[in-house]
Specification:
alpha+beta
């Protein structure tokens, strides 16, 4: 199992809508997350900075392949089309990133 963390901004005018959407994530999207070997997926929001932190545990053997399969899923693409305009990617993110990846520097059990 490998842990992943990432960050992104959230447009202030979109906070209520983002929370509403994530209170009832589409079942097909949840199934795809599971099929992509993602577990314990969590998103936190920090206001008033409007920065979100996402965390998940990956239990598969080929993260890149599983993420590519997720990206090909039509229902997930629809979900992203609804959610992405509400987000504000960080200016410092790496090329090709939407959510900015984070380095794990500490963990305890």
């Amino acid at each position: 199992m490998k842990r992943y963390g990432s960050m992104i901004g959230l447009r202030p005018e979109a906070i209520a809508e983002y929370k509403r959407l994530h209170a009832a994530v589409w079942p097909d999207v949840l199934k795809q997350i599971e099929n992509s070997n993602i577990r314990n997926y969590t998103i936190f929001l920090r206001e008033p900075e409007n920065v979100m932190f996402a965390y998940y545990e990956y239990v598969g053997t080929d993260h890149d392949a599983d993420m590519a399969e997720m990206a090909k899923d039509s229902r997930t693409q629809e979900w992203w089309a609804v959610c992405s305009p509400l987000q504000k990617p960080l200016d410092t993110r790496a090329e090709g990133e939407w959510w900015a990846g984070l380095e794990e520097v500490f963990h305890t059990e």
